[in-house]
Amino acid sequence: MIDVIEDSSINAFLFLMPIKLGTPPVMNLVAIDTGSTLSWVQCQPCEPHCHDQAAEAGQIFDPTKSTTFRHARCISRECFSIKHELIRLQSANCMEEEDTCLYTMSFGGDTTGKVDIGFSFLFGCSLDVEYSDKEAGAIGFGSSSFSFFEQVAKLINYKAFTYCLPSDETVKKGI
């Protein structure tokens, strides 16, 4: 069971879920989005712009402080997958001078960043976020080979997931 949090001071419309990224692990509170396919968090250095992230949503992730983080290379399987499954993504390109896969997507605003891999889990490391809510990012429950469920299924060799989000505001746990 995964904790589901409802906090209208961070986001009044979406449920939130705590995740941990990197080694050592950094907690981030992200929005659960059943339509997004790419999970992402705001990353340092936010260039040119970071959105206002609530203190309760965790620290802005700094990939340089993680021993299990790496950028997806331009010719990697992960970058190829992102480029060919542009579901809810506006574009996927390559930063050739750094050999890094890039993405741009809409999520209540626009976010642009690098495609990253940590513990074999593909996620977006957003460097430019124009967004009004205060969570750290989003967890993509949509359908693609890089959605949260598809990636977890490969790691645990299981093919079925069920989730139930509470409708009663007093309920704090679900999934």
Written overview of the protein:
It comes from Panicum miliaceum. Belongs to the peptidase A1 family. This is Peptidase A1 domain-containing protein. Residues 15-175 form the Peptidase A1 domain. This protein is mostly beta strands and 175 residues long. The protein has one domain (2-174): Beta Barrel (Cathepsin D, subunit A, domain 1). It is built from 2 helices and 11 strands; from the N terminus they run E-E-E-E-E-H-E-E-E-E-E-H-E. The protein has helices spanning 77-84, 148-156; strands spanning 2-3, 16-21, 26-33, 40-42, 69-71, 89-95, 100-106, 110-118, 121-130, 137-140, 173-174. The strands form 2 sheets. Strands 2, 3, 4, 5, 6, 7, 8, 9 and 10 form a 9-stranded mixed beta sheet that branches. The protein has a two-stranded antiparallel ribbon with strand order 1-11. The longest helix is centred in the C-terminal third of the chain and has 9 residues, at 148-156. The protein is globular, with a radius of gyration of 15 Å. The relative contact order is 0.24.
